[in-house]
## 1
Amino acid sequence: MFGKIEHLGIAVRDLARANETYTKLLGRPPYKEEAVTSENVTTSFFKSGENKIELLAATSDDSAIAKFIEKKGEGIHHVAFAVEDIHAELERLKKEGFQILNEQPKKGADNKLIAFVHPKSSNGVLVELCQEIAE
């Protein structure tokens, strides 16, 4: 079952410039910056109360973020939801007829296992499932 919104992902062209903007906007700097080589992105995370904002900048012209920005420009890229059991959720969503982009979860940023639901099956919104990785 889906939990809270884990974060909003925002695609940006220039991570340093976007970090400056969001530091001013939110009144605090990012708490983490991390490269996710499997996705060809560098990310920054900001807290806003109980919520998080993830800024994503492409590190390669063939990354999903670069393609997104080329097609739609900077802006909200995805909505991520916390889940307790990502494998069970993927199976449930497949049975419900959703198109899943990742058959198996993979390691994402901020110590999470992640998987995505294709926007074609969720009213044009890319949905990310996030499960905390137990340490």
## 2
Amino acid sequence: MNTLDNIEVDITVELGAATMPIHHLLRMGRGAVIELDAMENDPLKIYANNTLVARGEVSVEEGHLRVLISQKAFKRG
């Protein structure tokens, strides 16, 4: 198992997404709000190296934000 200890994986958690022209983004200031395409109870998307691997939900415990995995999304070959 020691060889697995040295493998790095980039984990990304997506709350939602939005599409907008770059000039709108550049005009945004502090406190600006970007509306996402997800509702508050929609599952988060969890990616490993840009591949969707699971869905989850946000949890706050002892002041720390956590992601709880609720469903694996592995494709079987």
